[in-house]
Design a protein that fits this description.
- The protein contains 13 helices and no strands.
- The protein is an all-alpha fold.
- The chain has three domains: 102 residues, MazG-like (Helix Hairpins), CATH 1.10.287; 81 residues, MazG-like (Helix Hairpins, Orthogonal Bundle); 49 residues, no CATH class.
- Helix 2 packs across helix 5, helix 4 runs antiparallel to helix 5 and helix 9 crosses helix 11.
- It is globular.
- The mean pLDDT is 90.
């Protein structure tokens, strides 16, 4: 099948998508915008698409999820094509690499280890294998390969988990709570007499400890904050709807009234 036929024929699956990307990136006949892209310019789109996948899952929208997963796959195909053009790797090498990683990290499925292990033991074995892989890459420090491009909250948790593996961690949640109270007090003090940069630093310390507290309590702070964001949007939407029923907007109201409407929305959620 020639390139044009493959690109235009539904049902071609992954080979069709790979060929479409090759055509888009063709230096002579491709799309000018696609030709100009690099790893660096595409990376922000990759991150954005991953978040849109998470958003579709959060909303339980399976039709949207299918589309968003396709958009995320396109990002991998994009990076694979750029890598192939530069002679670094291609899509097949990417797929082979992760396939081999899955086999190596699941000896209880693909090897001779017993499958009769708890989920907790399997997680521990997974982390041990990852540690061996990092050692083989000759990474310098414990934290060296925690990706800089991660969202700050997620990276904080990963840094803390990595440090905890070598014993740098509070053994009790109460100690984390005490540290949180200490950092909150420092932030209150900071706002009165410290510079803006120093206040920012204290806020960062408090957020970092909050991430640590979530980790100790077995809570995914990113998921918790997403849920809190969704709740805020939902309840503020109820405020807007209540005011709109009277022909008004939030700017036509005041804090006391909107706070009362917020409480009403909160009660309605609990009784529904």
């Amino acid at each position: 099948m020639d390139s044009d036929t493959l690109c235009k024929t539904p049902g071609g699956g992954l080979p069709r998508l790979l060929e479409i990307m090759r055509r888009l990136r063709d230096p002579n006949t491709g799309c000018p915008w696609d030709i100009e892209q690099t790893f660096e310019t595409i990376a922000p789109y990759t991150i954005e698409e991953a978040y849109e996948v998470a958003d579709a899952i959060e909303r339980g929208d399976m039709a949207e999820l299918k589309g968003e997963l396709g958009d995320l796959l396109l990002q991998v195909v994009y990076h694979g094509e750029i890598g192939a053009e530069a002679g670094h790797f291609d899509f097949d090498a990417v797929a082979e690499g992760v396939a081999q990683k899955m086999v190596d990290r699941h000896p209880h499925i693909f090897g001779d280890e017993s499958r009769d292990k708890s989920a907790e033991q399997q997680v521990a074995d997974w982390e041990a294998q990852k540690a061996r892989e990092r050692a083989a890459k000759a990474r310098g420090g414990v934290l060296d390969d925690v990706a800089l491009g991660l969202p700050a909250l997620l990276r904080a948790v990963k840094l803390q988990k990595r440090a905890a593996r070598v014993g740098f961690d509070w053994p009790e949640t109460t100690q984390v709570l005490a540290k949180m109270q200490e950092e909150a007090a420092e932030l209150v003090e900071a706002q009165d007499h410290l510079t803006a940069d120093e206040v920012t630093e204290e806020m960062g310390d408090l957020l970092f400890v909050m991430a640590n507290l979530a980790r100790h309590m077995g809570v995914d702070p990113e998921a918790a904050l997403r849920a809190a964001n969704a709740k805020f949007v939902r309840r503020f939407g109820a405020i807007e709807a209540s005011l709109a029923a009277e022909g008004r907007r939030p700017e036509d109201s005041d804090l006391a009234e909107m706070d009362a409407l917020w409480d009403a929305a909160k009660r309605a959620e609990k009784t529904s």
